[in-house]
TrEMBL record:
Name of the protein: MBL fold metallo-hydrolase
Database matches in InterPro entries: Metallo-B-lactamas (IPR001279), NDM-1-like (IPR050855), RibonucZ/Hydroxyglut_hydro (IPR036866)
Organism: Candidatus Limivivens intestinipullorum
PANTHER family associated with the record: METALLO BETA-LACTAMASE SUPERFAMILY LIPOPROTEIN, METALLO-BETA-LACTAMASE DOMAIN-CONTAINING
SMART domains in UniProt: Lactamase_B
Superkingdom of the source species: Bacteria
Residue ranges of every copy of the Metallo-beta-lactamase domain listed in the record: 21-211
Length: 283
């Protein structure tokens, strides 16, 4: 089945869209290429990437969640922040991945998938360490990694320096999940957002995400800092939200596709018992 389709961003960046809404990025320089994220390990991603580039390939993972990292076993050189290694292992089983896909596609589309469409689980996959500040020179195009913990402890964002494009992955988007056990509190996330924004100030003009809609406003980090403050002050809308059995709330009222009704980009989905550092309680 056609699990992916591609979109040309410019003469050296290709966006790869999955059936379940993830967006991966293939970046090519004169000497090498980099693939940012690998989706769920389904749909023969490596064959697609091989058809798009013949250059030596490096894979960079934004974080360890199954919808971004489970395609990693198809590739040789894969970088992951070691803080997300256990998360990757935990989400490797068939059942985790199939359950996620089933919740995101129609029954007819899901029925088309067979075991042959999946990369076999490889929880002991060996990764190269992805550390804050690392730069990958592809030849005329370079990608720098920045740590931005919150959505997961090992979340990373990538700056395409020459293009002045910031790829945020799930670290900060229009429906940032901040309710799992691997997430930090809203208070700490705000601190991390402020720190990241300061480090990246003046270095980018465009912001790309990793789900559904590719591009968002460059003001998203500032909006997220403001939103965290509103949550801490009890000034948010807090719409009920449930994802795969977990209940949380959406901070700002939004329409379909998590488009905020006030027109701003950036939103948080969080649990009210996880706002303050060191004060998480059971609900």
């Amino acid at each position: 089945m056609n699990y992916y389709h591609t979109e040309t961003v410019n003469d050296h960046i290709t966006a790869i869209h999955s059936l379940t809404g993830e967006i991966l990025y293939l970046v090519e320089g004169s000497r090498g290429a980099a693939l940012i994220d690998t989706c769920l390990g389904v749909g023969h991603l490596k064959a697609l990437v091989d058809s798009l580039t013949e250059k030596p390939l490096t894979v960079l993972l934004t974080h360890g969640h199954l919808d971004h990292a489970q395609g990693a076993p198809e590739f040789d050189t894969v970088y992951l922040n070691k803080k997300d290694l256990e998360l990757y292992k935990k989400q490797s089983p068939w059942e985790e991945r199939k359950g996620y896909i089933k919740s995101g596609v129609s029954p007819e589309e899901f029925a088309k998938l067979t075991d042959a469409d999946f990369v076999p689980p490889m929880p002991e996959k060996e990764f190269s360490e992805l550390a804050d500040g690392m730069t990958f020179d592809l030849g005329g195009i370079s990608i720098q990694a920045f740590s931005y913990p919150g959505h997961t402890q090992g979340s990373m964002v990538f700056l395409l320096k020459e293009d002045r494009i910031l790829i945020l992955g799930d670290a900060c988007n229009n429906s940032t999940f901040l309710f799992g056990k691997e997430t930090c509190s809203v208070e700490e996330y705000r601190e991390n957002t402020v720190k990241t924004a300061r480090r990246l100030e003046g270095l980018y003009d465009r912001v790309f995400l990793s789900h559904k809609v590719m591009e968002t406003g460059k003001e998203i980090l500032a909006n997220m800092e403001e939103l965290c403050g509103e949550i801490m002050e009890g000034k948010t809308d807090d719409l009920p939200f449930e994802f795969m059995g977990t209940k949380a709330c959406i901070a700002k009222r939004c329409k379909e596709g998590f488009v905020r009704e006030d027109g701003k980009c950036g939103n948080l989905i969080y649990r009210k018992n996880h706002i303050w550092k060191d004060r998480r309680t059971e609900e």
